[in-house]
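Hi R.,

Here's the chain you asked about this morning:
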Amino acid sequence: MASKSAHKRGRKAPSNKSDTYDIEASLGYLVNSVARLSLADLKSRLQSLNIKPGQIPLIVWLLEEDGLTQSDLCQKANIEQPSVAEMLRKMEKDGVITRRRDAKDGRKYRIYLAAKIRRRAAEIYNCAHESNQRAIAGLNKKETEAFLKTLRRIIGNLRD
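And here is the predicted structure, written out as tokens:
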């Protein structure tokens, strides 16, 4: 019997289960679709602030504790060092952050949010919140909590 999703899309489903792979039931495919669509939504909301979605974790950590090192940000945001280095380079070029040498260890640089970004923190948070609200529209609080709990478990399963 053809799967509902294969039939809907006009694809002929293979005759037995071992010959088929329903991509629309694939966790990876669905999570990737959510990530891609969420990213596009958040990007459009942040455009006027000259902030990129990938920068949000770094900005949030710097809002919480300004003057972190690049290494601190990698650890807190759980992002690889080369990616953080590139993001910080772009953020510095765009005037989102400044870097200053550490007073105690001249080899290290401390990273500080620009005042203009700090002043717009509420707007940045609001963009992220609105994007998240759009994504979970139609889910009640219990469903949302269960979904987020499940995602955290999956992340834990796949980490390291």
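One quick note: Residues 49-158 form a domain with the Arc Repressor Mutant, subunit A fold (CATH 1.10.10.10).

Cheers,
M.
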